Amino acid sequence: MKYSYFPGCSLRGLGRAYEESLLPVMQHLGVELQELDDWNCCGATAYMAVDEAKACVLAARNLALAERSGLHQVMAPCAACYLVLNKTKHYLQDYPAMKAKIDRALAAVDLTYSGNMPVRHPLDILLNDVGLEAIKRRVQRPLKGLKVAPYYGCQIVRPYSTFDDQNNPTSMDRLIEALGATVVRYPLKTKCCGGSLTGTVPRAGIRMVYILLDEARKRGADCLATVCPLCQFNLDAYHADVKSTYGGVALPTVYFTQLMGLAFGLPESQLGLNRAAVRFKWRPAPAGAPPPPSAATPAPVTA
Amino acid sequence: MKIHRTIKYESDCVRGFGRELMSVPGCEQLERCIQCGTCSGVCPLSIYMDYTPRQVMALTRADFKREVLHSHTIWLCASCYACTVECPQEIRITDIMYELKQRAILERVYPRGFPIPVLAREFTAMVRKHGRITEMVLVIRLFLQTSWLAALGNWRLGLDLMRTGRFSLITERIKRRHEIARMFDALDGTKGKGP
Rounded to whole angstroms, how far apart are CA atoms A169 and A239? Predict the structure, then answer.
């Protein structure tokens, strides 16, 4: 199993814990990743608001680079990158005039894009290529007793859901269960985190973050698990603002890959757990330890 | 007491605006809007909007260009696609919001000092120049241009980012930066190789 790998800007910035945990986990499962040579910003949501042809060509350059790499699929872990690359693919397919325009722009830098590069999210690859059975076999330290609220956010299921249900995605639920943890029912799993509004219109953004955190708390979760660097940042970095407006909800938000790393028994130093403002302090019992008595509860999670 | 007319007159329209917008790829389905309001119901931000998404759809189709381009609604849209997915008429509402944002930027009618268009502008300038985004630099530039006070209010966030090793001001850039410029030039038709 070998894929082109498109990290995206966030995984080199605020979301670096995602890449830090993703790479060792994938390596541990025998998934080979080859970083896309000289990849550029996907354009995210901001470029679409300025110029759609330019937004398209930014994404298309990455798709063309993926094609040139000789590998047949590209993995995009950031939800925004995943959406933008998929959206561009659809756009080029549906609008031949736009495709011709983009082709000309790519040709100016000796690139071509045929239109057929599958863009995959790591969750998709883990469930459908690696398989839950193979993942279960790697679990050394089951996350027994940990209650997780699976939070998917918008952009890996909307508007193009290629591997999961749009209204009630379950791929991360199943993955978390395979790690031995308990999934709490979390109906807000695809509700928007506010995106960049936390920074631009805090009054609106902070409220959205609070609703997500508070619902997870009410449902007894010890943490939220996320698949998107912006969701993780929003749910982690604004606790002070949430506290001053609505009261504190001290719940940590981790990447699903960090939970996988813990369950696989990978060294903690490889998982970027120290990158969060609200530390995730829960740890599974060491491998081979006797199962804890049933009354034992996980160590309380504190901010 | 200051009063103003709240009922729209036909003379407030810019004839042809709706038709022209519906000719943009991705926006064609707007013609089929049945004004059911599903978009406004599922929108997590409609409670803050001056016009709900349903109203923006109706105003756009009815040529009320000034009203939609000046509305806060288009800037509050966080691109979560909930409306697009739920719309029974398969109208790509999020994409229409993008299109309206583009026109508002083009015509410079967005609210002054409103941070969201500034973010879009700073973001695109950074991508054009470096090919990638350095998030911390982007955030700092945004605050400098919109609200010093907000930047100061976020001192705790800044400290958290430093403490957790995420506060990086080293510019991320691609090697072949000229490729971005050349592709954009080709799109603009200035130095393109032609069909």
Answer: 27
